[in-house]
Write a structure and sequence with these properties.
Shape: globular
Mean pLDDT: 84
Membrane topology: Multi-pass membrane protein
Pfam family, one: LPG_synthase_TM
Largest sheet: none
Keywords: Cell membrane, Membrane, Transmembrane, Transmembrane helix
Helix content: over 70%
InterPro entries: L-PG_synthase/AglD
Oligomer: single chain
Low-confidence stretches: none
Order of helices and strands: HHHHHHHHHHHHH
Subcellular location: Cell membrane
């Protein structure tokens, strides 16, 4: 309930902070969005979901399971549908779905989903690093204008020292809580190693790259629906994409947080707040509706139609 409550509050805060004319302009921007680009964004979204469903087979096959692409896709979309209403419940329901359709034990299916999330986390980190590199000049200029660099340098040095001390504590401490953290970290590394060690690791890596390429393409194509954002650089696209990814995890499907984050990040890069609001509303609204309708139909098939 907490993320949902936060999402409702952020929606109220976001829309309540606009003037009546701003809300009218926002609605006009949404109505005037070119439907062709929206349809293309849906195509990119579908391709990413199909690739994710197919990629799942590469982790399940070594355990002796080979689900059909249709039931794998149904599980993936059911997960997205669930996340819209109960944050992070999609991973659980996805495992339940594939258990119902293909008799794959829940714990094994859930373990493979965790491995997938590790690969996705690595991709997000790589995109984040690329965005920082591409926008390094803008970030440096910002810190020169807005802040004294000495406190930032001291802060980074302190963080580095604390990081080294923290790693030594994690490595040597026998405290139960520290041991759990160490075990969790080692489990993540083990998951990454298992991905690299699988027989079809090249295909898995290809689909991982393809999935995230589709995500970025879907993000970029929606900028063409907002006149003020046409021609935006790839550096800005990647930086905004990363911020949006974190916003999506803060509330149910990014409710409230995503439009606010897009308005803030595009304003930071010199675009108008109105353009950021329009973009955030269009991409968040269309993808949420898509996940509810398509994911809801798949969930209906898995838990009602197929059961009967």
């Amino acid at each position: 309930m907490l993320p949902l409550t936060l999402g409702v509050f952020l929606m109220w805060f976001w829309l309540g902070g606009m003037s009546p004319q701003d809300r009218i302009d926002l609605w006009n921007d949404i109505k005037n969005a070119n439907p062709i680009w929206i349809v293309i964004s849906f195509i990119f979204s579908i391709l990413s979901h199909l690739s994710r469903a197919y990629r799942w087979k590469f982790i399940l096959e070594p355990m002796g399971y080979s689900p059909k692409l249709g039931t794998s896709l149904a599980a993936v979309m059911t997960g997205y549908f669930a996340n819209t209403f109960v944050i992070r419940s999609g991973e659980v329901l996805r495992a339940v779905s594939i258990q119902r359709t293909d008799d794959i034990p829940f714990e094994k299916a859930f373990g493979t989903i965790v491995s997938e999330r590790i690969a996705d986390l690595v991709m997000l980190i790589l995109i984040m690093i690329t965005a920082v590199i591409l926008q390094s000049t803008v970030l440096i200029d910002y810190f020169k204008r807005e802040a004294n660099p000495i406190p930032s340098i001291i802060g980074l040095a302190v963080l580095l020292v604390l990081g080294i001390i923290g790693l030594r504590i994690l490595k040597r401490s026998s405290h139960p809580f520290i041991v759990k953290i160490r075990t969790f970290g080692l489990g993540i590394l083990e998951g990454v190693k298992s991905i690299l060690a699988m027989k079809k690791n090249a295909a898995f890596i290809f689909h991982t790259l393809f999935i995230w390429s589709m995500y970025i393409a879907m993000f970029w194509i929606v900028t063409l629906t907002v006149p003020g954002l046409q021609g935006v650089s790839m550096g800005v696209i990647l930086a905004s994409f990363v911020i949006g990814a974190f916003a999506m995890s803060a509330t149910n499907a990014g409710m409230g947080a995503y439009p606010l984050a897009m308005a803030a990040i595009f304003t930071f890069f010199g675009y108008t707040e109105a353009d950021g609001n329009a973009f955030g509303s269009i991409i968040w609204g269309t993808q949420t509706i898509f996940n509810i309708i398509i994911g809801g139909l798949f969930a209906l098939y898995v838990f009602v139609v197929r059961r009967r």
